[in-house]
Every structure is written in C-alpha cells, then in structure tokens.
Amino acid sequence: MTFQEFADGFRRFDYNNPDFENMGSWPFGIKLIMLLILSGAIVFGFYWFAIKDSYAELERATAREPNLKQEYQSKAFRVANLDSFKAQLAEMEESFGALLNQLPDETEMPGLLDDISTTGTQSGLEIDRITPNNDVVREFYIETPIAIQVRGTYHEMGTFVSAMSAIPRIVTLHDFNMTVANRQRGGEVSAEMESPLSMTINARTYRYNPGGAQ
Q1: Alpha-carbon span 91 to 199, nearest angstrom
Q2: Residue 119 and residue 206 in contact, taking contact as beta carbons nearer than 8 Å
Q3: What distance in Å separates the CA atoms of residue 205 and residue 142, rounded to the nearest whole number?
Q4: For the domain bounded by 106-208, which CATH number is listed?
Q5: Fewer CB under 10 Å: which end of the chain, C or N?
C-alpha cells in the first residue's frame, strides 16, 4: 500500500455514517486508528481497574517501611537481649525486696528513734527533741515525718547528717534550719565555729502500704 492509497482511504471514508456492521471494509488507516483507540482504551481500563489500586497500596506499604524496619530492629534487639533483660529484672526484684526490707513497720518505730538519738549523741550533739508526727499515706507507702532538734557545732552536725545514711532503715532529711545557740559547754563558749548552733531537721521514714496497690 502506497502512501497515496493510505491517504485516499481517509478521504473516501464516510465519517457521518460509518458502517459498523461491515468494519472490515473500512480503509486500512481508519481500521489502524480504531485499533489504536481500542488498544489505548483497554490499556487505560486495565490500569484504572487493576493496577491503580495496587500502586496506591504499594505507596502505602512504602510509607510504612521505615516504621516497620524500626519496629523489627527494636523487637530483634529485645529478643537478642532477652536473657540479659531477665537477669536485670531478677536483679531489680531483688533490689526492690531489699528496699522493702528497709522500710520499717510501726513496731520498729521506737527502735528507729533510738537509732537516730544514738547517732546524734555519737556525733557529739545534744538532742533537744525527736518527735514523730502524723503519718502521710501515699499510693504505695506510708510516710512518717520526724521532727528533730539538736545542738552542737557545725562539724558535729555535718557528722550527724553523714552518719544518718548508715542507719539500716531508709530515712531522708529535709528542711534544714540552723540558728546560733547561745549556750556554753562547761562554762565556756565552744571554740569550734565560734558559737554553737541549733539545728532543726524534718526527717522522713517510710513503710510499705500493703493496701496501696488495691
């Protein structure tokens, strides 16, 4: 087929009344164009109904990939270190049990007060008062404030505060307040730090609250 014959087919074709029942008689160029249109429609339809959703799903999966990789790495790390985590958990449980044993119950309060008094005396202080106050109930423990007032030199008070950490029960110290105490030892003013001091401390001790987790 020459180009002239190909072009003549376009000119002879009746575009107003195409014979769809006898498409085989159409000029070659018209049939070629119709074939291209139908092929394009088939390809577009296949993409729109079969492939488009797959591309969207692929994009969503690609967007999730970094998070999934991070989650996988995290889980792989935990699995690889499972034995180590179990050992740490056992150690934490043991430490927690030891801390619970350091929490006094009500029957041990007199002994704790004696320990505080002995610590103060051994530090060289004079004890004015050691007075437990009302309990403060927390979620998992009960807090007992203890008002302490002592007299002595600055260094004796430092020794006392340091020695309190050696008491076998948990005691924390708060709200320090020091003032100059006008007193004499043996008729003479203490030479250390020029004047004796009076110190008040709010100590706190703790005991386990068995009903706190309920």
Answers
A1: 39
A2: no
A3: 8
A4: 3.30.70.60
A5: C
